[in-house]
Amino acid sequence: MSNKIVLALAGNQNSGKTTLFNRLTGSNRHVGNFPGVTVERWEGHVSGHEFASVVDLPGIYSLSPYSAEEMITRSFLTEGGVDAIIDVVDATNMERNLYLSLQLIELGLPMVIALNMMDEMRANGNTVDVAAMSDALGVPIVPISAGKNEGIHELVDAAIDVAVAKQRPQHHLDFCSGPAHRCIHSIAHMIEDHAERLGISERFAATKLIEGDAPLTESLGLNENELESVEHLVKEMENELGTDREAALADTRYNFIEGLVARTVVKRPRSRERERSAGADVILTHKFFAIPIFFGIMGLIFWLTFGVVGQPLSDALGTLIDSLSGWVGDGLDAVGINPFMRRFIVDGVLTGVGTVVSFVPVIAVMFFLLSLLEDSGYMARIAFVMDRPLRCVGLSGRSVVPMLLGFGCSVPAVMSTRTLPSERDRKLSILLIPFMSCSAKLPVYALFTAVFFPKHGAAVMSLLYILGVLGGFAAALVLRNIPYFRGSPVPFVLEMPNYRLPNLRSVLILLWEKCRDFLSRAFTVIFVATVAIWLLSNLNVRLYAAASYEDSMLADVSRLVAPLFAPLGFGFWQAAIAVIVGLMAKEATISTLAVVTNAGVGSANIAALFTPAGAFAFLVFTLLYTPCIAAMATIRRELRSGDGAALAVAAGQFAIAWCAAFAAYHLWI
Amino acid sequence: MTLDKLSVGSSACIEAVHGEGALRRHLLDMGLTPRTRVTLCKAAPMGDPIELELRGYSLTLRRADAANIEVGEPGHE
Fold first, then answer.
1. How would you classify the pairing of strands A111-116 and A84-90?
2. Could you tell me which CATH class the domain B3-76 is placed in?
3. Residue A246 and residue B42: Cβ atoms within 8 Å?
4. Do B31 and A95 meet the contact criterion of CB atoms below 8 Å apart?
5. Shared-domain flag, residues A159 and A191
6. Which of B23, B43, B46 sits opposite A491 (nearest CB)?
7. Which domain does A88 fall in, by range?
8. What is the value of pTM for the model shown?
9. Boundary (domain end) residue, out of A165, A189, A212
10. A478 and A331, same structural domain?
11. Mutate to test the interface with A, among B28, B41, B42, B77 (most CBs of A within 10 A)
12. Does any CB of chain B come closer than 8 Å to the CB of residue A64?
């Protein structure tokens, strides 16, 4: 068997599709419980069957023309590259999941249904007559449990079988009746040639025509007579059923499903998982407790990340790097190396490495905790609880997730806005994220508060975070009136999945991917920037070793721009350098200050440079000014509006930061 | 009456889904079709959005959108 087979994984959100994908490919990916996590297209080889690849499609509920994910799925499936569909159906939520299955069956592609979460189904004492259901739908059904790794081999074999045999769903039993049935068949017959030309099944084309699906109607290219006949047939159906075309078809599908489920499934009215989730929600989405609990959980996450676990680990790693620099320095001295090279290696290279590495624990802990929230199903509750307050600033409850991620790192936060269904919400959320103080800025706050506000460190830091959030909301209120962001707000219709225990293995794999991603990014962008900045700050304009930093090229540049910061209380070149370097990576702000003030990692002789008011203004400026190069690159990509929009973001953030820092400085004194 | 007027804890059968375009289609796709029994489980802390239970699962939507859905006489579970 050498021919390559392409399998497409389709299914509802929260159907366990991503877990199944991880099982199939062996490369364990992220499992999300928050609807819409799978927006990127993941692809992998089916382990043990290298000739077969599997594509993970977005989690969707229907094949309507209204959502980007549904259109992506439709075009991917109808373009002709797919040999078989694996449709993942959550057995504990059969009715709504089968609604998509019916539409997928209409596509007429070889297909297998993976009846997932059978373990939960059985634990509830429910049973399903798989053979009868398979017979009624005309496609093979394989009961599986992706989480428990049951039935995966059988599923793969069944999918490859139908793909190789090109076994299309058998329409021997029709899942509609009465007027809708007659209408679909008359139209299907009439448009057969057009559908064939497009390479799609005439039945799928007919149902979409009836539903008034604009993109498909256009691509079918019917002539005026045909369009008129279609309209006539649909009108007739509408009259007979006493309802309109869209409702008629949705109703027909659900009626068929209700009948099918009544015949083949024996279940208790409410699953134990549903009962348990409802029980947990009595507290977690309680009228009075929900918002305090939400802030409590966020507080806990930040305390664990920055207080208990992350910071001590970072400090320990920082100390380790410091002693490493010491040993390397001693070793280099012992062999009598050129003193400039010694400084380059110890102060430039190793300081750069140290800065980057000491950051990993904080990022790891943050992502670990956030992915627990996501996989447990709590993120959807956050959207439910926070929707009303966020609507005040023109956003929906879903924007809370990217904003929370923004406290970790802007890059994944901006990327996560892809899960937002409306263009407008997505753009607004992206522009809000830079206001959420990312974790890379924390060392700056930590160092400055330790030096200038030792007694009020926590208060100053909290103030900065709150200032960022308020600034973001203020910006959203202004921005939503700009035509670029106008548009109809999305319908907020969101499934609340049952609470599930997060799969620790996949959380850890996600964590590993995040850390690896950060390290590779850090060791390219941040490391190169740190070394380059060290060289710039140790060479003068004639490329000789500078006698001191004051003599260096970077100092020359910084002196040029420093007056810009004089009204903010830090108009000296050392601060200007730190700001410039911060554009490469916020992590490097402190290491730069350390380098230009001749101090070790994690400290800087800043007490002599800044006044307390200037220090506070510097913190406010750091909080708000232009995001780092990695974040800017992501923002540019995700806004999909070219360089202009990205430059506007960069300049806008700089201007906002300048004004805020100016105000902060003058209010302080 | 409309779905948003349903009191917490009571349930009713859907009679019609009004509105148009993406929202209406999405509501239908999520199973809010005529003759479906829905229960209003709770409202979010600030009274909006609301949480429904239908077809064995839980769905949340805003009151303004729920106002497009006409329901019959409510009864208690």
1. parallel
2. mainly beta
3. no
4. yes
5. no
6. B23
7. 5-165
8. 0.81
9. A165
10. yes
11. B28
12. yes
